[in-house]
């Protein structure tokens, strides 16, 4: 196997600063010169700050906006009926 073909794979803490949520995982993201944070096991790991995680994303938190699809469908049908009515009258 060739040497130096794969990136370094190491433990990092992903930190969602919007809701103070962090999780420890492994990643190939370069962390040289980045800040470090102490984890619950007492060891220090490099930190990668993220803006959105499962704790802050509206889809996962249940705070997502629900579209009124029924109202949109009715509006489309009304517009479609007007245009088809005009076309039918023009043909006669």
Write the layout of secondary structure elements.
Elements: E1 10-16, E2 21-27, E3 36-38, E4 44-50, H1 58-61, H2 69-91
Parallel strand pairs: 1-4
Antiparallel strand pairs: 1-2, 3-4
Query: How many angstroms separate the termini?
Result: 78 Å
Q: Percent of residues in beta strands?
A: 25-35%
Tell me, what's the shape?
elongated
Structural category? alpha+beta
Helix count, DSSP H or I runs of 4 or more residues: 2
Number of beta-strand segments: 4
What Rg, in angstroms, do the CA atoms define?
A: 27 Å
Element order: H for helix, E for strand? EEEEHH
Sheet bearing the most strands, described? 4 strands, mixed
How many domains make up the coordinates? 1
Residues in helix, %:
25-40%
Please, what is the average pLDDT?
Answer: 79
Q: Can you tell me the residue ranges where pLDDT is under 50 for at least 5 consecutive residues?
A: none
The strand order across the widest sheet is 2-1-4-3
What can you tell me about this protein's structure?
The chain is an alpha+beta fold and 92 residues long. The protein has one domain (10-91). 29% of the residues lie in helices and 26% in strands. It has 2 helices and 4 strands. The chain has helices at residues 58-61, 69-91; strands at 10-16, 21-27, 36-38, 44-50. The radius of gyration is 27 Å and the shape is elongated.
């Amino acid at each position: 196997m060739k040497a130096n073909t794969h990136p370094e794979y190491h433990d990092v803490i992903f930190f969602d600063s919007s809701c103070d949520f962090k999780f420890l995982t492994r990643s190939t993201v370069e962390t040289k010169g980045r800040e470090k944070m102490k984890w619950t096991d007492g060891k220090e790991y490099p930190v990668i700050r993220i803006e959105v995680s499962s704790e802050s994303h509206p889809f996962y938190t249940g705070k997502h906006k629900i579209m009124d699809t029924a109202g949109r469908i009715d509006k489309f049908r009304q517009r479609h009926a007007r245009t088809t009515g005009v076309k039918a009258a023009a043909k006669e």
